[in-house]
Design a protein that fits this description.
Radius of gyration of chain B: 15 Å
Helix content of chain A: 25-40%
CATH superfamily of the largest domain in chain A: Aldehyde oxidase/xanthine dehydrogenase, molybdopterin binding domain
Oligomer: heterodimer
Strand content of chain B: 5-15%
Number of strands of chain A: 32
Shape of chain B: globular
Largest interface: A-B, 65 and 63 residues
Distance between the termini of chain A: 37 Å
Number of helices of chain B: 5
Number of domains of chain B: 2
Distance between the termini of chain B: 30 Å
CATH topology of the largest domain in chain B: DNA polymerase, domain 1
CATH class of the largest domain in chain B: Mainly Alpha
CATH architecture of the largest domain in chain B: Orthogonal Bundle
Largest sheet of chain B: 5 strands, mixed
Strand content of chain A: 15-25%
Largest sheet of chain A: 7 strands, mixed
């Protein structure tokens, strides 16, 4: 039996947050490179040798994590990068969420944001460099301590060893560093990949001990002295405003402390959450729906279908697909429809806030604390540095916890305004499902032809759906000529805007148009893999249609289309072998595939299904091949791929949020069905060997599973599914 | 005032008697390892042991558990040792976001207490009410088998 470690995350979390709250910062905390000007503090228990690394006298090494952990495994990857260069005992490693300071911003986004499957790519050099610089600093200190040459010294898992046998722990060198005002070198050499002993090897999650003992701190687990709880009565039509409310019944409930209106609705504050939620249910609220009470997903779909027949904004026009289609004797055409999707994270939205006259402190699980801080500071009229965000672990996000409006945070801040104690707002599952942030509904119209040999000759895709980025702070970066690059990401052959990759396919005549219908009603929001979640489904299914039209094997067709893209081509060859693609299948079974490039990393999946006569099906096998450059943590990659497959399969099988009279119809896991144990297929993960810089895996697996399953169902039954989810259109995943 | 035996300690709480055990544990006793997921017994995140059996605490009113024995995730690692299920969870590197895992582990521990060597089908049946959105089901199944082998060969389960 292994022993439980002490409770590192909770202890350091509380310590750092309370210090931030009082403004008396840890020595060295703010002064990573300027020890010379720092006050002498030789009694300090710890030393920041770098923005990312703190060493304690007891030789505990803490890595400050500037990317958010929500299941993505990034804390483990970042720790591995530091550990590789610094040479430390993995067991003594601790982690802590880095505060909201510019030096912790993502080098890729230039803000404090964890998104887009780019954390590993962005952190690979900075975290290794941090480790290497600290190691150099420690070696220098040991040289001074022992008055010896550097060539006599080596590191050994948290210790410096002298050739004569003497040893000193890293923590034991804090005094030397401080007494001599030592600083890390400005530049440092990093290890060559051939010398790696941590990076590239499977490492288990560093926060796993907390997660099996119930000690992991999620936002919902925050307890502060004197804290009270709030539940919000939210409008049936998202975006409605409170006109008036009757709180007599709510106030009569013992334990209810206060009732007040906030932007999102009416909040009931109480001594515990249960009482607050009873209070919220007891309210009678009169709402102004701002004219949104007529909206329905059925009418959106109709409207988008009609729009898809008209000219949109031109995103890409390679060759002349329009001319090819005008001249063709027959053009194959199909319309694909994808519903709104909820994130349904296991941990519902929540936030804890305390508002003082001159500052605000927040405890929350968030992907985007830089933006959250900006929004809250603006709302409260405070300087940004007076808003402190303590980031916790997250019980999932899938994009939901990167809110451009910081909606689940402003709720709590507004509820806490005028209170003398911290307020924790928890969204009920129903509020969370009806919370108005969804993968937007999309309609894709596709037209294509095949050449005399049966290969795709032309492709014309018209994409219709609400823009996620338009009219947000990301508008200038993510909108190109009025087109949201997320709306078309995944169906363009060439790089577009800030996305440096295309589909990996080459079709000689390739045209993509985009319509951004008005952003009214619920909010279009990022959902794990964002644009690909709809473009990829439409693209890979329609490619399958063209393969069928040209009498081509779907994988052979993709091999042909990627003949000039060696990376994807090799990956497809590996898939062909790993998935036993050419082996015959029994009657009632089918095989399908899809291949995508998302955030630079190519990925392909093949699935096998068995379909009963009544349309009930099982997914028997999923084979996935991914090329994410150098594989930092193979175990973490496998987990991300399995997780992506599950979320994507869940969505294609069941996912769909409907609006009727402006109101979301679904509310909890009975009608937002989640995949259950027996429905989860085994997922075989194959990682391509590569020396290329690492790229992402967090979102790559979510999309291909959906078209692969739809294509496999077609293969098994001859029935083409173009509307989703499957269970509303004839195919039900066996329960 | 209602008294319950939580993790071997008698605890008296002033919560309203209709308060689900989940919120008594979380808000009154600050045992936050037990999670809120759905509030209507659909997801399993709130699973605790009541007199040794796995139950959903989100729909179990305080009044119904007076003077009864409740065990939560915080109590599985008795004396500082992980129980066999927790160890297996670490060995298989099961958790991703980890939010559902308290409930999964409580359910798995109860399953193994009743059935020391469950088949895949028995695991699926016992765990069917537990939702994970990260995709850890395969690893949970492997971890349960691993824990079963450990307990079979003489380990203890807490």
């Amino acid at each position: 039996m292994s022993r439980l470690p002490a409770d590192p995350s909770r202890r350091t979390f509380l310590k750092s947050s309370s210090m931030l709250a009082t403004g008396s910062l840890l020595v060295g905390f703010e002064l990573p490179y300027s020890l010379a000007s720092a006050p002498k503090a030789s009694s300090a228990a710890s030393l920041m040798t770098d923005a990312f690394i703190r060493i304690d006298r007891d030789n505990t090494i803490t890595v400050l994590m500037n990317h958010a952990e929500f299941g993505n495994g990034v804390y483990t990857s970042l720790a591995m990068m530091v550990a590789e260069e610094l040479d430390i005992d993995w067991q003594r490693l601790r982690w802590e969420a880095a505060p909201t300071e510019p030096r912790y911003y993502s080098p890729i986004f230039g803000e404090y944001l964890t998104a887009g499957s780019v954390s590993t790519a962005g952190a690979f050099m900075p975290m290794r460099t941090a480790g290497a610089k600290t190691k150099a600093l420690l070696l220098q200190a040991a040289g001074i301590l022992w008055q010896t040459d550097a060539n006599q010294l080596s590191t050994d898992a948290g210790w410096i060893a002298h050739a004569d046998g003497r040893r000193v722990s890293y923590g034991g060198l804090i005094n030397v560093i401080q007494d001599h005002n030592l600083e890390p070198p400005k530049t440092v050499d990093l290890k060559p990949a051939s010398a790696f002993s941590v990076l590239g090897f499977p490492k288990k999650r560093i926060e796993a001990p907390e997660k099996v003992t119930g000690r992991a701190l999620f936002g919902i687990d925050i307890k502060r002295p004197g804290m009270i709880y709030g539940a919000v009565a939210r409008p049936p039509v998202y975006g409605s405003r409170v006109i008036a409310f009757d709180d007599k019944a709510a106030r009569a409930i013992p334990g209810v402390l206060k009732v007040k209106a906030i932007d999102a609705g009416v909040v009931v504050l109480a001594k515990d959450y249960w009482t607050a939620s009873k209070g919220a249910k007891a309210l009678t609220v009169q709402w102004d729906d701002l004219g949104l009470g007529h909206l329905s997903t059925a009418s959106f779909t109709e409207e988008y279908r009609a729009l898809s027949k008209t000219d949109g904004l031109l995103a890409e026009d390679i060759g002349d697909a329009k001319a090819v289609h005008e001249a063709a004797s027959a053009v194959h055409e199909a319309v694909y429809e994808m519903p709104y999707l909820a994130h349904a994270t296991m941990e519902p939205m929540n936030c804890t806030a305390q508002v003082f006259d001159d500052r605000c402190e927040i405890w929350v699980g968030t992907q985007n604390q830089g933006n959250d801080r900006t929004v809250v500071a603006k709302m409260l009229g405070l300087p940004e540095t007076s808003v402190v965000i303590n980031r916790t672990l997250m019980g999932g996000t899938f994009g939901r916890r990167a809110s451009k409006t910081a909606d689940f945070i402003t709720d709590a801040v507004q509820a806490a305004q005028g209170e003398t104690v911290p307020v924790q707002i928890i969204w009920s599952r129903e509020e969370d499902i009806r919370g108005g942030h969804y993968r937007p509904l999309f309609v894709h119209r596709l037209r294509g032809t095949v050449d005399a040999e049966g290969y795709p000759a032309s492709w014309h895709q018209t994409v219709v759906g609400q823009s996620i980025m338009q009219h947000t702070k990301h508008d200038p970066t993510y909108m190109v000529r009025g087109i949201d690059i997320y709306s078309v990401d995944g169906c363009l052959q060439e790089p577009f805007g800030v996305f440096p990759y295309g589909t990996a396919y080459q079709i000689p005549n390739h045209r993509v148009e985009s319509h951004n219908p008005p952003k009214i009603g619920v909010r279009p929001h990022e959902w794990r893999a964002v644009g690909h979640t709809h473009t990829g489904v439409a693209y890979e299914c329609f490619l399958d249609e063209l393969a069928h039209l040209g009498d081509k094997d779907p994988l052979a067709l993709r091999l042909h289309l990627t003949r000039d893209n060696d990376r994807m081509h090799q990956l497809l060859l590996r898939l062909k072998e790993a998935a036993d693609w050419d082996q015959p299948l029994a009657a009632g079974r089918g095989r399908g595939m899809a291949a995508r490039v998302y955030s630079v990393s190519p990925i392909a999946q093949a699935v096998e299904v068995t379909v009963a006569l009544d349309g009930t099906f099982t997914v028997d096998r999923v084979v996935c091949v991914v090329d994410c450059g150098f594989a930092v943590n193979p175990l973490g990659i496998e987990a991300q791929i399995q997780g992506g497959v599950m979320l994507g399969l869940n969505a294609v099988a069941y996912g769909g949020i409907d609006l009727v009279d402006g109101q979301v119809q679904q509310s909890n896991f009975h009608d937002v069905r989640a995949l259950r144990f027996n429905q989860m297929p085994a997922v075989e993960v194959h990682i391509m060997q590569s020396d290329a810089p690492p790229t992402g895996v967090g979102e790559q697996a979510t999309t291909p599973i959906a078209p692969a399953v739809a294509n496999a169902l077609f293969h098994a039954t001859g029935k083409r599914i173009r509307q989703f989810p499957l269970d509303r259109h004839g195919f039900t995943l066996k329960a | 005032m209602v008294t319950i035996i939580v993790n071997d300690e008698a605890r008296t709480v002033s919560a309203s008697p209709d308060t689900p055990l989940l919120w008594v544990l979380r808000d009154h006793l600050h045992l936050t390892g037990t999670k809120y997921g759905c509030g209507i017994s659909l997801c399993g995140a709130c699973t605790v042991h009541l007199n040794g059996e796995a139950v959903r605490s989100c729909t179990l009113p305080l009044a119904a558990v007076a003077d009864q024995r409740v065990e939560t995730i915080e109590h599985l690692a008795v004396g500082g040792d992980y129980n066999a299920v927790q160890s297996a969870w670490l060995d298989e590197d099961v958790a991703q976001c980890g939010y559902c895992q308290s409930g999964q582990i409580m359910a798995a521990t109860a399953l193994l207490n009743n059935n020391p060597s469950p088949s895949d089908a028995e695991i699926d049946a016992a765990m069917a009410g537990h939702i994970c959105r990260c995709g850890t089901y395969q690893k949970i199944r492997a971890a349960i088998h691993r824990a079963a082998n450990v307990t079979e060969s003489g380990g203890s389960q807490a």
